[in-house]
Amino acid sequence: RNDNFFELGGHSLLAVQLLSRASDLGLKFSAADLFQAPVLTDFATKIHLGPQLSNPGVISVQATGSQPPLFFVPTGLGDCSYVPSLVKEMDVDCPVYALPWPSFDEVRPPTLEAIAAEIIVAIREIQPRGPYRLAGYSSGGILAYAIAQRLLSLDDAVSFIALIDVTLPANPSSISPTQMIREVVLDSFESLDDESFEVLERFARQSSIAQLLEKAQQIGAIPLDRDLQNVVLMYEKSAQFHAALQSYRVPSLPIEVHQFYATEPLISRRVPPDEASIGPEASSPMRGWDRVLGAAAIHAVPIPGRHDTLMSVPQNRVVLARAISRALGGVDSRRT
């Protein structure tokens, strides 16, 4: 009972899992509570029982504030583990929530519009009316935009959208969503020695996602005692999400967005699988969004680091957190 969550090896991903499981049981607390009171006996005083949301998995990252909530949507891998550590560095006077993906229908792959409509049900359970404030990292930012599209079609207001290094490709990808996710899986093993990595790369050409992960486990890239079932499910859902992304036609909306873009290019030991799809928008501060929005509607804010180190490197994350806080504060002051 006197153990410290973080001294035992706790981190942001485990904090998200803890929040999600506790929420399903009706235990109410925020990620901020855990960061402020990581010792179990102190943490217990922060927890209270409350009504369970009909949409389980919604995570309260910061419970209180006088301004409207800020809603983070998951990345293209369904991940929201970056949110607690980012919000810990932010200075915002509002509740903050991380939203899960809804369940995907395996028989009928979802559209991005359908995913957005289901997420809005969870949003409105927390905040029945707008104006709404949304944020998304990587391809999750396109989902945040689709949510805004749906809200506007329902005559609701959207006052803030944070796109965290979100590229809008000019041309649709020529590779399938499953191939794309296989490449993402391979990228996660870049720290392997050359021989082991080449084994996986060759194997990936004719394997499913599940087979690729099993092979990675066999050669020691994944611990043998790790259950792969949830990992496989995550990547398979991600392939469905990217199929929805590929079929989504991004409309022009009467809104402004803040694009927090990485100033350094993404570095990989591998040649991009589809170089033709990598256009100039990947290096433009507006990341291609000026094709659907006027340049005046895009507030481009540079953040040090690469796409993958905006969150993983603490110094970069602090700069990003402060930039988002300033942008939210500017929106609030204009409204008042």
Structure description:
- The protein is 41% helix and 12% strand.
- The chain has 336 residues and is of the alpha/beta class.
- α1 crosses α4 and α5 crosses α6.
- Mean pLDDT is 84; it is low at 269-277.
What is the strand and helix layout of this fold?
Layout: H1 12-24, E1 27-28, H2 31-36, H3 40-44, E2 48-49, E3 59-62, E4 70-73, H4 82-88, E5 96-98, H5 112-126, E6 132-137, H6 140-153, E7 158-164, H7 177-187, H8 194-204, H9 209-218, H10 229-247, E8 257-262, E9 298-303, H11 309-312, H12 314-335
Parallel strand pairs: 4-5, 4-6, 6-7, 7-8, 8-9
Antiparallel strand pairs: 1-2, 3-5
Helix pairs in contact: 1-4, 4-12, 5-6, 7-10
Keywords:
two-stranded antiparallel sheet, 336 residues, 7-stranded mixed β-sheet, single chain, alpha/beta
Morphology: globular
* Whole-number mean pLDDT: 84
User: How large, in whole angstroms, is the Cα Rg?
Assistant: 20 Å
Question: What is the strand arrangement across the widest sheet?
Answer: 3-5-4-6-7-8-9
The end-to-end span amounts to: 46 Å
What is the quaternary state of this protein? single chain
* Uncertain regions spanning at least 5 consecutive residues: 269-277
Encode the helix/strand succession as letters.
HEHHEEEHEHEHEHHHHEEHH
Helix content: 40-55%
Strand content: 5-15%
Number of strands: 9
List the total number of helices.
12
> Major β-sheet, in short?
7 strands, mixed
The structural class is: alpha/beta
